[in-house]
Specification:
Number of helices: 12
Radius of gyration: 24 Å
Largest sheet: 7 strands, mixed
Shape: elongated
Length: about 400
């Protein structure tokens, strides 16, 4: 039997493709794990931050240098198109204050079940416990996919096997190695992205759960600043986290220096002036005065004062130049995304077809595209899947 399509991987992008490919003739979805969408169910701690609000033009910088390359794909199949697709198929959404968009049920499973139902309606048969072992061309327009359960033939092959993050879910990078071996497809070496970062002498474990808004992070390597960002910071039991840390984690290496400014955009001098003015007219304790003047949690300030001592000059320095040495950037087991994958120069980004292998399409995280935390990676999964399925975008003005 020759299938119109074979989709390798029943993750977000593979299921978006199968659910969007109406009147396509259907095909076969091959999933190496015993269940589909295992990694998808983990997104947003199971709540599924599916995309982000606002103009699609604002998405481009959120993918780093690759954002400009995938711009046309994102514009054509944008966040409004994704939201309409969900609503049309019975999944209501809402936008949170921070711009993140979730299903109203706050359950990733609702979207997964909808995608599986749509894929079935479109004529796609899901086959689990089927791991791809080789890919080769049989004829000019015919591809053979070899698996642990036999070989399958198709006219159109969709590569949606994910990257390397959370390998226990099936996203372990094995498909990238097969493509490099069998088809000589050029890839960018994968590395963890959106990963937890451990620092030496971490002092904030006892205030786990407290988050600070708009903290600045500057990253130094051998005393040279190599990256910076401003975002929300979260203290956990064991490390620094939150969007600020996750989004810059792929730039970090062991022994790099992190400098945090909790009062951004104030610098050390202006912070000291502000503190001196508040202390001169204070009627309460130093801790209460600083908490009220700086709008920072008392528990956080208590630890910071314990570390710096009562000197206002040292407190100001700690508030604006708190320094830590990177102890470890967690690997793929804890990373939320993958940086690296199929080189974008291999892809026709209008259709997601491989330039040197007509009939093969690559979508989602298997490509060298990674976005910030906030729904950007699932948005690209949808956008690239729609481009490959040639589904017309919703006629909505951006």
């Amino acid at each position: 039997m020759i299938y119109p399509h074979i989709v390798v991987g029943a993750g977000a992008s593979g299921l978006f493709f199968s659910a969007a490919a109406e009147n396509s003739g259907g095909g076969l979805i091959l999933e190496k794990k015993s269940l589909p969408g295992i990694k998808f169910l983990l997104t947003g701690n199971g709540q599924c931050n599916i995309t982000h609000g606002g103009s699609i033009k604002d998405f481009i910088p959120c993918y780093g240098p690759g954002g400009r390359v995938i711009r046309s794909c994102l514009y054509k199949y944008n966040n409004l198109s994704l939201i309409e697709f969900l609503h049309k198929n019975g999944v209501d959404t809402f936008i949170r204050e921070d711009g993140k968009i979730f299903p109203k049920s706050m359950k990733a499973r609702e979207i997964l079940e909808m995608l599986l139902l749509k894929a079935e309606e479109n004529g796609f048969l899901l086959r689990c416990d089927t791991e791809v072992t080789a890919v080769r061309r049989r004829e000019k327009d015919l591809w053979e996919v070899c698996t642990n359960a036999g070989s399958f033939l198709c006219r159109k092959l969709i590569l949606s096997g994910g990257g390397c993050s959370y390998p226990k879910t099936g996203s372990d990078g094995s498909l990238l190695r097969i493509l490099s071996r069998d088809l000589h497809i050029r890839t960018v070496t994968p590395r963890p992205a959106l990963s937890p970062v451990f620092v030496c002498d971490y002092p904030y474990g006892r205030i786990a759960g407290i988050a600070l808004k708009k903290v600045q992070l500057c990253l130094f390597r051998e005393k040279k600043k190599i990256a910076e960002g401003v975002d929300d910071l979260l203290f956990t039991h064991t490390n620094l986290s939150g969007p600020l840390i996750l989004n810059l984690s792929k730039e970090m290496e062991k022994n790099d220096e992190i400098m945090l400014n909790y009062l951004y955009p104030c610098d050390k001098t202006s912070a000291l002036d502000k503190i001196n003015t508040a202390v001169k007219s204070r009627k309460t304790s130093l801790l209460n005065t600083l908490s009220g003047e700086l709008n920072l949690p008392k528990n956080f300030l208590k630890i910071l004062i314990e570390r710096s001592g009562p000197s206002l000059k040292k407190i100001s320095a700690a508030l604006t130049e708190d320094r830590f040495s990177v102890q470890e950037v967690c690997g793929f087991e804890k990373a939320m995304a993958t940086c690296g994958g199929i080189d974008l120069s291999e892809i026709d980004l209008k259709s997601m077809e491989l330039k040197n292998h007509p009939g093969i399409y690559a979508i989602g995280e298997i490509l060298d595209v990674d976005g910030r935390t906030g729904g950007y990676n699932l948005q690209f999964a949808y956008s690239s899947a729609c481009a490959a399925s040639s589904v017309s975008p919703a006629s909505i003005k951006r």
